[in-house]
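Supplementary Note 3. Input sequence used for the single-chain structure prediction.
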Amino acid sequence: MDKVSVIVPIYNSEKYLIRCLTSLVNQTYKNIEVILINDGSFDGSEKICKKFIKKYSNFRYYYKDNGGVSSARNLGIKKSLGKYICFVDSDDYVKDSYIYNLVSKIKCYDLIITNVNNKLNKELLELSDLDTLYYLFNNKYGYLGFIAGKIFNADIIKNNNLYFDEALFYNEDRLFVFKYLLYCKKILFYNKSDYYYYINDDSAMNKTHYNKKMLTEFMAYDKMMKLCIVNNLPKKLLINIKVQMYSRLYFLGRKYHVKELSNKISFKQIIITVFSFNCSLVNKLRLLKYYFFKY
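The predicted structure, written as discrete structure tokens, is reproduced below.
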């Protein structure tokens, strides 16, 4: 059996950590290593981690000064020994068969994507890298930017120096998936929901007050657009990213009443971008409806 490295970044997660780690202990696929990265927690997370590493020989624990989830995941990648890599957030948990179901499908593919929000009308769907890149931005099968619910090939990550951008605090996961897909040939959508994502009111994506770290979301979009250009990806994908970035700027500027966001983009710019899209008028209007009424 091939070894799977499960990387768990941890920051002040004592409330949910035991549930998370217990779900990994209970995996039916046994050749896994669980890499716990404590990103400078000051609650009881470390105590919980030490209990697990003492009891389970396949659990490893590392402490680092607080640097954000990207730096924690990167350390986990560097410490990993498995042929495959999964990421599980410390406030989430997984079904007992989670790793087994992923490993049983990965042999012929470069990436397995699960948790497609039941929008896939069949159990399995094989896609190319380009098709999957499009789905990162149109939500046809749900939001696919999360690294949760996926299994990655460690060689693709390490041989191509694919790490999380530590300057980003938002959208860093989608940028990582985007870069990884550039090195993939075959991707499998697996209509299984074995990963239980906990919506934490204190998480980055649920903040009720504006902070400047939110601007890093748009740095990620900018990096993805540059990758489109460098890799000669279709203009359709570039415009998709640009429209989504503009709509996010417009939405966040209105939601938080922040001039530095709302001044970056106007309704007119979004209209111009959408109408530069090479599709029928009906589809352009649908696209506008999607981006504005989605929020």
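The first helix runs from residue 14 to 25. The chain has two domains: 4-198, 206-293.
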